[in-house]
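Retry 2 of 3 after timeout on previous attempt. Resubmitting structure tokens to design endpoint.
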């Protein structure tokens, strides 16, 4: 019911970002906004966005609870899939950085061995928006 209002606000925010930021950065943030809403619709509770390690060497786009699982989510978005699916950009070096950031988050939050999962949300804007949620995309 309120989905149209959220979409309108997202579009306004995206246009403002495009005026201030590089187009790729604005598109990435738009993808994160869309992924955040998508995950919440599926019942997940997003607890952090853009978590960075203190050194700034690693980052996780979204951190959410899915029942008893702590889920670290990498969001990849593209205007088109002409050069392949967005999730293909989550290569081994990127995975290592996500795992490093996840371990740092768990340590700092003081969790004792939570059940952890690593997901990827792939978004292609093009005509409309195509969102794909890949659960358990990779392991630690």
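Retry 2 succeeded. Sequence:
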């Amino acid at each position: 019911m309120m989905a149209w209002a959220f979409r309108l606000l997202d579009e306004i925010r995206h246009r403002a970002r495009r005026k201030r930021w590089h187009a790729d950065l604005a598109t990435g943030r738009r993808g994160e906004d869309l992924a955040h809403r998508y995950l919440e619709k599926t019942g997940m509770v997003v607890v952090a966005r853009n978590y960075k390690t203190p050194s700034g060497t690693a980052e996780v786009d979204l951190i959410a609870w899915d029942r008893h699982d702590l889920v670290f989510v990498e969001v990849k978005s593209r205007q088109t899939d002409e050069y392949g699916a967005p999730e293909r950009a989550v290569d081994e070096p990127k995975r290592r950085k996500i795992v490093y950031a996840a371990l740092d988050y768990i340590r700092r939050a003081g969790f004792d061995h939570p059940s952890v999962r690593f997901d990827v949300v792939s978004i292609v804007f093009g005509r409309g928006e195509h969102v794909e949620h890949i659960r358990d995309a990779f392991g630690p």
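Attempt log closed. The CA atoms of residues 63 and 72 lie 5 Å apart.
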